[in-house]
């Protein structure tokens, strides 16, 4: 998978978590996020797992998208939820992002104060070609900073 595809997935997760209202549950400290991507159109298209570490302050912990360390994602703008729901500690959503990628995504993130696990299916238009990706996300608080 290209670096651009990886940026798309990281951006989707950032947009997803930024809009969720479970921020009060997230503990500050050192967080490690692992993202594994694979193409649904072409299951043989995969990427090596991407690991991002980030020290979250009290302020950062109020915005769970901080777990990603501010990964930029050009081509994605104005992300809005078309559906979202909470059941216990699970957040389910569908979202759409304007911009050159015409991104649509759906997913589920289960969380606690010290962990997040989820799966996101996304569809986007990259350079005129439709792509469909699945991302598995695992985030863990590793301790203090």
Automatic annotation (TrEMBL):
InterPro entries given in the database record: DUF3617
Signal peptide range: 1-23
UniProt superkingdom: Bacteria
Keywords in alphabetical order: Signal
Pfam families listed in its UniProt record: DUF3617 (PF12276)
Record-given protein name: DUF3617 family protein
């Amino acid at each position: 998978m290209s670096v651009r595809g990886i940026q798309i997935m990281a951006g989707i997760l950032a947009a997803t978590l930024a809009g969720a209202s479970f921020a009060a549950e997230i503990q500050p400290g050192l967080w490690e996020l692992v993202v594994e991507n694979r193409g649904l159109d072409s299951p043989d298209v995969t990427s090596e797992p991407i690991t991002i570490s980030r020290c979250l302050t009290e302020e950062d912990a109020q915005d769970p998208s901080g777990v990603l360390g501010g990964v930029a994602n050009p081509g994605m703008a104005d992300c809005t939820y078309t559906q979202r729901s909470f059941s216990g500690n699970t957040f389910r959503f569908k979202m759409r992002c304007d911009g050159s990628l015409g991104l649509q995504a759906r997913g589920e993130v289960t969380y606690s104060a010290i962990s997040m696990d989820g799966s996101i299916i996304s569809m986007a238009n990259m350079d005129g070609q439709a792509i469909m990706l699945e991302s598995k996300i695992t985030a863990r608080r590793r301790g203090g900073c």
